[in-house]
Design a protein that fits this description.
Shape: globular
CATH topology of the domain at 145-344: Cytochrome p450
Number of strands: 2
Radius of gyration: 28 Å
CATH superfamily of the domain at 145-344: Cytochrome P450
Order of helices and strands: HHHEEHHHHHHHHHHHHHH
Strand order of the largest sheet: 1-2
CATH architecture of the domain at 145-344: Orthogonal Bundle
Distance between the termini: 82 Å
Structural class: mainly alpha
Largest sheet: 2 strands, antiparallel
């Protein structure tokens, strides 16, 4: 019995050391994985900078979680620190994200070497349930084919005239919303009323591009309340963006089980698809009837252009969603920043106002006689081609706040 004592004591000692040994083994494994990962990343990206808070193995996962609500600010601070060189954001389970911040790099990515910098499978995985196989998510030949179809549709004279008419019609509604606000502010000079310009412009551009894409009149702008499609689409975009900062297995499991925001996403997609697919079905049914005459939205024109064997509802949905996504938010954001910049630069506002009233005298006449929104003259696209100062202001807005 006594002969076993050394063995028992040794066993107790080894047992006591087991947690320490396990911790050391874990650290060694992490360092090994980190070294291999860094070597692989260095060979792929060269000596590209990383944020100073980058951790072994975890990369910037904690940064993404900690700065979830201020992610753009965090990226801006790192871009400023590394400028003009790019930097890399890394996280387990996802491809490295290379952040660029110079005009030369932008041009290289989006123009000079566009075919080299593909969107990759990640964006399709996260957003295809919302956008389908739209132009926004595609690469290669599929991107080229869909782009060719869209360019052909937008190049048609009928579509250009239709877009101009749709913009003017909804601009008149927007004028009807803004005029009472301006009159109320003029009457209460000591207390200016707030205006939610972001919501207003978002609703205006949604009205325009839903009619351009699907021929649907939401009428949310004149009602002052969001259409169910608008609510579902806006929320679905937010949830789709949240997937970028949520580990892929987590949001996929939540989607499978219908939990949290992923359960909400399922409801949003049901609303979106019910609206969109019913409009597509109506356009297909109307193809060989008089009901199709005069319809100049993307879905209707695509139905007319494509043969019966090519009428895939998913393709029609993708084409219209491409126009909606590409045009709605970018236009709304640019208009908001444009108005904001005018409020910050009164001299520019006065000069722009002088150009508009000089080159479009009908607007000046309407202003003098106090014309109502319903009877006011609104310019068409051909009427604004000579407004060079307006064009310069819009381009400067886009330079400062790219959309």
């Amino acid at each position: 019995m006594l002969s076993f004592l050394p063995t028992l004591q040794q066993l107790k000692l080894e047992t006591a050391r087991a947690p320490l040994a396990a911790a050391l083994a874990l650290c060694a494994a992490l360092l090994l994985v980190s070294a291999v990962s860094k070597k692989r990343q260095k060979s792929a990206h060269g000596d590209v900078a990383v944020p100073p808070t980058t951790l072994p193995v975890l990369g910037n996962l904690l940064d993404l979680v900690r700065n979830n609500d201020t992610l753009h600010d965090w990226m801006y601070e790192n871009a400023k620190r590394c400028h003009p060189k790019p930097f890399v954001i890394r996280a387990p389970g996802r491809a490295d994200l290379v952040v660029i911040s110079t005009p030369e790099a932008f041009e290289d990515v989006v123009k000079t070497q566009f075919d080299v910098f593909g969107k990759g499978p990640g964006i399709h995985m996260r957003l295809s349930d919302l956008l389908g196989d739209s132009l926004t998510l595609l690469d290669g030949d599929r991107w080229r084919i869909q782009r060719k179809i869209l360019v052909g549709l937008f190049s048609a004279r009928a579509m250009r005239d239709s877009i101009s008419s749709i913009i003017r019609k909804n601009a008149r509604v927007l004028l009807g919303v803004l005029t009472p606000q301006a009159e109320a502010n003029a009457a209460a000079a000591d207390k200016q009323l707030d205006l939610d310009l972001s919501t207003l412009m978002g609703r205006f551009t949604l009205e325009v591009f839903m009619e351009v894409g699907f021929g649907l009149h939401l009428r949310g702008l004149e009602a002052g309340e969001p259409h169910p499609f608008e609510t579902a689409f806006d929320r679905a975009q937010i949830i789709g963006t949240m997937r970028y900062t949520t580990p892929t297995p987590v949001w996929k499991l939540k989607r499978l089980l219908g939990l949290g925001v992923e359960g909400e996403m399922t409801q949003c997609l049901a609303t979106i698809n019910e609206t969109v697919l019913s409009l597509i079905a109506r356009a297909v049914e109307a193809k060989h009837s008089d009901a199709a005459a005069g319809r100049k939205d993307i879905v209707s024109l695509a139905v007319e252009a494509l043969g019966d064997e090519e009428l895939d509802p998913s393709l029609l949905r993708a084409l219209a969603m491409s126009a909606l996504v590409a045009g709605r938010d970018t236009t709304a954001q640019t208009l908001c920043w444009f108005v904001y910049m005018l409020t910050q630069n009164p001299r520019v506002e006065q000069k722009l106002r002088a150009e508009v009233l000089t080159k479009l005298p009908k607007l000046a006449e309407d202003a003098e006689r106090g014309a109502s929104p319903e009877e006011s003259w609104l310019p068409a696209s051909d009427d604004v081609q000579d407004l060079t100062y307006l064009e310069a202001c819009l381009k400067e807005t886009l330079r400062l706040y790219p959309a």
